Amino acid sequence: MRFVKGHGTENDFVILPDPDGVLDLTADAVVRLCDRRAGIGADGILRVVRTKAMDLGDIDGSGGTEALDGAEWFMDYRNADGSIAEMCGNGVRVFARYLVDSGLAAPGEWDIATRGGLKHVTLGPSGDVSVDMGTPVPLGPGEASLAGAVFRGERVSMGNPHLACPVYLPVAALDLSRAPEFDPQAFPDGVNVEFYRPVGERHLEMRVYERGSGETRSCGTGTVAAAVAAAAGTTGPGEWTVDVLGGRLTVTLDGGTSHLRGPAVLVAEGETRPGWI
Ligand SMILES: N[C@@H](CCC[C@H](N)C(=O)O)C(=O)O
């Protein structure tokens, strides 16, 4: 199986080119590929499939996949534990960089299909990748706890679920070696939990514990959720700088949609040994 390895602010992915959708990517195979000791190691998988080769059922409530028709390529995103997520903000940027780097798309702007709908990306032959992340949906207050301490924040849907909690000490002080606990009635599909601290004018530092992947060094959807929470549960307008463990991302809120910009880097490519998976 051919693979490429890449990351966006150190949120890292194994990219699996599968244009015709012939790969039977089981949850077990995802777990093995993402294993950092016995596998390649990653926070998640990006399977690269032609949209027309995907069987997505009724993804948009219209009885078909019409909502994704405008995009040639579909990002089939999986978390490291094998679960499926609706969207991945860093993933879609790395996916776009892969398409351009491998000659499957030209630099410029176009849509990528995801389970969270079409995402419009903008990129040159090298450098940063921007994506229109769509309209964040603030859902009101929520809470999670970490080692018995309760953190209150804002629930935000970015297609996938987030709880963005302000903290008042440097985020480096948090112990994220264990998963935050939350009320499953409040988050029936699980939740990605962000901890953010304002460090300047529209400037945050943030750490994240991701659903299905554990603590990661960055989360694109999470940075947008944190900016929305820091903007007092509004969608802007304003440009936010968000420092994560793996680097810096820029989030732009315009009162409607949101944009995420930052690096997306491909670092290696190879082939798994026959029979390993
Ligand atoms: N790291 C991603 C989010 C990946 C999905 C998430 N773990 C979930 O289950 O919702 C990002 O950059 O947005």
TrEMBL record:
Homodimer. Keywords: Amino-acid biosynthesis, Cytoplasm, Isomerase, Lysine biosynthesis. The active site is at residues 88, 219. The lineage of its organism: Bacteria, Bacillati, Actinomycetota, Actinomycetes, Streptosporangiales. Pathway: Amino-acid biosynthesis; L-lysine biosynthesis via DAP pathway; DL-2,6-diaminopimelate from LL-2,6-diaminopimelate: step 1/1. The keyword Glycoprotein does not apply. This is Diaminopimelate epimerase. Substrate binds at residues 11, 79, 89-90, 160, 192, 210-211, 220-221. SUPFAM superfamilies: Diaminopimelate epimerase-like (SSF54506). Belongs to the diaminopimelate epimerase family. Catalyzes the stereoinversion of LL-2,6-diaminopimelate (L,L-DAP) to meso-diaminopimelate (meso-DAP), a precursor of L-lysine and an essential component of the bacterial peptidoglycan. It catalyses: (2S,6S)-2,6-diaminopimelate = meso-2,6-diaminopimelate. Its EC number is 5.1.1.7. The gene is dapF. Its main location: cytoplasm. The record marks 162, 210 as: Could be important to modulate the pK values of the two catalytic cysteine residues. It comes from the Bacteria.
